[in-house]
Amino acid sequence: MKLTSIHAVPLAYFLEVAERGSLSAASVSLHVAVSAISRQVARLEAELGTALFEREPRGMRLTEAGLVVQQYGRRAFLDAQTLQADLQGLLSVAHSKVRLACTDGFARDYMPYAMALFQRRFPGVSFSLEVCAPAVATRMVREGTVDLALTFAIAAQEGIEVAYSEAAPVYAYVARKHPLAALKRASLKEVVAYPLALPSETNTIRQLFDLACGVEGLRPRILLSSNSLSALVGYQAYTDAVYLTGSLAVRNNLRAERRVLVPIASRAMQQRALQVQTMAGRHLPPAVRAFVEWLAEDIAGRRRAVPDQPARRRAGQPQA
What GO cellular-component annotations does this UniProt entry give (predicted)? Predict the structure, then answer.
């Protein structure tokens, strides 16, 4: 399918060079001669009247204009695929694949629940799920590798449209008999008085936690740091360690795991947002659009139904 304002072949070659970082790498990927790719990229630059790459000894680096064209190109090809499938009668909510990314916390329980429930309504829909760090999920949306991401953000993200967003408070996730479980709200100082099991540094909770501890001059005792939620929750089952999490990731497991969520009274720990992200300006296929809308409605409903916590009392000091 031809694109209107920019020819498809030069744009496709440009995107491959941008992705691979050099003409030679793009040549191997496309099985096209380097000279042919170079001519098409030069043609595109001539048509646009600007340089799209900085030619360097070890490869090609996108200019500011090149970054803009890259974003346009990704969106244009995705829209062209959507239009072509629609015209051929292949695109409907009932017979589509939704590509999505989410963090490990959502992959453990919430996203399987969401996908299964959505498929009850639309049995013909299939999913592919990538589990990764928040920044990686956002990058995959921006690059068009996935259709949407359920992830966290601390700041605005370029090239991303936020379909849904809400504040994502951080909680201490502890056993019902843990001293913190008696508190209606815990200060960060009260939390770090106990041993911790924390996500690795790529996690937004960990980033905020490290920053907040630095500001308050706190020195936490971290027994385990991992990029695996399963490992952290599994480890916690055998220890009294405190785990920090958002509510959506563990809400369905509170009763089964006999644990409670204790809000943390720290402004620095409340600076992230839970977001459903899509590519800015992209025309979403019907199934993707329907699932985005379903996610937004479900998450908003869960925010209004935070599980009841047991009656609270002031906690005693941790044992030495």
Answer: cytosol
Cβ atoms of residues 246 and 103 within 8 Å: no
Q: What is the pLDDT of residue 223?
A: 96
Please answer whether residues 35 and 68 qualify as being in contact, where contact means their C-beta atoms are separated by less than 8 angstroms: no
Query: For residue 212, is pLDDT > 90?
Result: yes
For the record, the structure tokens of 98 come out as 């939704």
Question: Alpha-carbon distance 128 to 102, whole Å?
Answer: 11
- Whether 272 and 168 have beta carbons less than 8 Å apart is answered as yes
Domains of the chain plus CATH, in order, are: 8-87 (1.10.10.10), 97-164+273-303 (3.40.190.10), 171-270 (3.40.190.290)
pTM for the full predicted model = 0.67
Rg (CA), the chain: 24
| pLDDT value of residue 308 | 40
Is residue 250 pLDDT above 90, yes or no? Answer: no
C-alpha distances (whole Å) from 291 to each of 28, 95, 167, 232, 283 are 37, 13, 21, 30, 14
In our burial notation (b when 16+ CB lie closer than 10 A, e otherwise), range 275-304 reads bbbbbeebebbebbbbbbeebeebbeebee
Residues in the chain: 320
